[in-house]
Amino acid sequence: MEQNYGDKPTRLRTVLAEKGIMQKDLAKMSGVETYQISQLCSGLKSNVMLDTAKRIAKALNVTLDEAFGDDIKGN
Q1: Phi, psi of 63 (to 5 degrees)
Q2: Which of 14, 30, 37, 41 is the Cys-Cys partner for 55 at CB 3.0 to 4.6 Å?
Q3: Residues 6 or more apart from 67 whose CB is under 8 A from it?
Q4: DSSP label at 73?
Q5: Residues contacting 31, CB < 8 A, separation 6+
Q6: For residue 4, what is the enclosing H or E element?
Q7: CB of 41 within 8 A of CB of 68?
Q8: CA distances (Å), origin 50, targets 5, 7, 21, 57, 64
């Protein structure tokens, strides 16, 4: 079964869109490789090292929760 990763935007992808920042620009701002940013934005990679997440959040001037938080709401 083929998975469509781009169906639901990730938190990170949403933040980038809201701020008008391209993935390659975030890579430069955070010092994180462009392919890693791409994987995180597309949902291909869901686990991220804490140091990497902190660098991305700092570059975007958002909290870790805003960039990577869980969208699942309690029932």
Answers
A1: -80, 165
A2: 30
A3: 11, 12, 15, 53, 56, 57, 60
A4: P
A5: 55
A6: none
A7: no
A8: 23, 26, 22, 10, 9
Nearest to 55 by CA among 44, 70, 72, 40: 40
Residue 59 has pLDDT above 50, yes or no: yes
Position 14: which residue type?
T
Whole-model pTM: value is 0.81
Tokens 């958002």 locate to 62
Main-chain phi, psi angles of 33, to 5 degrees: -60, 140
Q: Per residue in 1-54, pLDDT tens?
A: 334 445 567 999 999 999 999 999 999 999 999 999 999 999 898 888 999 999
Average pLDDT, integer, range 52-61: 96
